[in-house]
Design the sequence.
């Protein structure tokens, strides 16, 4: 019997191919004695990828414009040193540590800080080469050469891999309160807030830049109409990021999407923006998923008005957002359930929210949307600055039939927002009516409750996941009392039997 022919291997998808490259890179870095864990390995790979990606973009620009002058020049361009196979071992380490990184840190910077040279120089102020073996570094560089950033597929796939790298860094660091925002949630929020050409869009907790990238894609049709439009769109997205690695990743993400001078600042927006009272610091749109469950130090909290002073980051960001919106400005923000039911400092901030903004919609997300980082139920708040809230629509998004929650391996899909988008009623939010997943609450009811927004769907029966904590606690205490009474009765019966 003739031997069976092996069926040809299926070609790898861009995701599979790049994931394989990244895996090999990490295997190489595990051998190097200078890198201890993902907190060292991932930043090392990130800045090398940055240089590789930027050089690929420079090559494309040179093809389109013969007079193009690269920002990183001469022997410091990736193609000049990284592709030189003879540069290895101690010679490679000496070049990277003694020449390349100092050169990048000293790129000429301008007063405004908005040129590409400013961005690159800023990134490398906080970057170091931690690898001790020049031979392992050469192997790593050779693997990274297999990624091609002139390919649109590689660009988009790499952007997603960058985000997965950040997630792993957060896992390794054990950072509480910082959760990767799933792409379907970002896309839904951007579409419902609907940024327009010419509007300034801010994310004060930018992470890898997911909201900013989705905004660019949302405005892509306008940007393609003219060079002037493209420049307006690219200059309209702004961000702040507190930590160096996600700052690098968000900057990389924007550069990969051809934003020559990303307007992302490295720093704590809670400190920088709250102290800027100028009209120029106000924006048209804010889209963000700020860290929650974390704590800021006293100096940050003291910059806020007394009634808003707290260590809880979620409250500080919500207050900041209200302050930074222009009259008529719009916001979509992710908040945990605690923001809805808190009646301490939260009640004061929610009072201000309802008095200064129209909190027109709260979308309640299913459990597990942020798995595996947290099972805390989360919500999306949508509001406009400039007029008080009169009534609030709630909409409960349900997981697919037969499922109770989402998981890491079975995450939420964008299509699962379709019913909510249909109900939304377009830009004017008109025609919202009867829907088993939606309910309307007068603002006066919220005020009378002490600004409790953790309201359950009256159409959904006894939904434990979203009932107010106080109500659940009362029922649990009552149940415990009933159980205790029954146990005492049983004890009396048992004692009576023993005495006979």
Sequence:
């Amino acid at each position: 019997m003739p031997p069976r022919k092996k069926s040809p291997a299926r070609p790898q998808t861009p995701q599979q191919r790049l994931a394989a490259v990244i895996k090999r890179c990490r295997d190489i870095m595990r051998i190097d004695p200078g890198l201890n864990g993902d907190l060292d390995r991932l930043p090392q790979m990130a800045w090398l990828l940055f240089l590789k990606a930027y050089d690929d973009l420079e090559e494309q620009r040179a093809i389109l414009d013969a007079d193009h002058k690269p920002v990183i020049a001469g022997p410091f361009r990736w193609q000049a040193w990284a592709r030189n196979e003879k540069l290895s071992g101690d010679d490679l380490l000496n070049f990277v540590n003694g020449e390349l990184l100092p050169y990048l840190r000293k790129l000429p910077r301008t007063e405004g800080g908005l040129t590409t040279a400013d961005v690159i120089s800023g990134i490398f102020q906080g970057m170091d080469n931690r690898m001790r073996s020049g031979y392992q570094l050469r192997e790593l560089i050779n693997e990274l050469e297999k990624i091609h950033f002139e390919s649109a597929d590689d660009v988009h796939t790499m952007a997603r891999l960058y985000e997965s790298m950040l997630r792993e860094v957060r896992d390794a660091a054990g950072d509480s309160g910082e959760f990767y925002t799933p792409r379907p949630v970002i896309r839904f929020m951007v579409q419902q807030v609907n940024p327009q050409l010419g509007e300034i869009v801010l994310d004060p907790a930018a992470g890898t830049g997911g909201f900013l990238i989705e905004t660019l894609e949302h405005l892509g049709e306008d940007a393609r109409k003219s060079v002037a439009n493209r420049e307006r769109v690219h200059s309209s997205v702004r961000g702040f990021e507190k930590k160096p690695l996600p700052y690098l990743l968000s900057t990389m993400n924007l550069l990969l999407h051809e934003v020559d001078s990303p307007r992302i600042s490295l720093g704590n927006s809670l400190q920088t923006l709250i102290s800027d009272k100028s009209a120029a610091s106000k924006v048209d749109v804010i889209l963000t998923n700020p860290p929650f469950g974390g704590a800021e130090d006293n100096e940050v909290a003291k910059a806020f008005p007394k009634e808003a002073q707290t260590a809880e980051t979620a409250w500080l960001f919500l207050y900041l957002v209200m302050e930074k919106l222009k009259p008529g400005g719009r916001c979509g923000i992710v908040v945990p359930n605690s923001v809805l039911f808190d009646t301490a400092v939260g009640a004061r901030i929610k009072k201000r929210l309802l008095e200064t903004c129209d909190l027109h919609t709260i979308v309640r997300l299913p459990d597990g949307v942020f798995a595996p980082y947290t099972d805390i139920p989360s919500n999306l708040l949508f509001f406009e600055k400039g007029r008080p809230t009169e009534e609030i629509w709630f909409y409960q998004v349900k997981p697919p039939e037969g499922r109770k929650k989402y998981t890491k391996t079975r995450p939420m899909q964008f299509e699962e927002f379709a019913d909510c988008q249909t109900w939304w009623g377009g830009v004017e939010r008109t025609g919202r009516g009867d829907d088993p997943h939606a309910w309307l609450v007068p603002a006066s009811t919220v005020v009378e409750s002490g600004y409790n927004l953790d309201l359950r769907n009256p159409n959904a029966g006894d939904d434990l996941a979203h009932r107010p904590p106080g109500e659940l606690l009362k029922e649990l205490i009552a149940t415990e009392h009933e159980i205790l009474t029954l146990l005492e009765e049983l004890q009396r019966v048992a004692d009576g039997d023993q005495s006979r």
About this structure: The radius of gyration is 27 Å. Residues 173-177 have pLDDT under 50 and may be disordered.
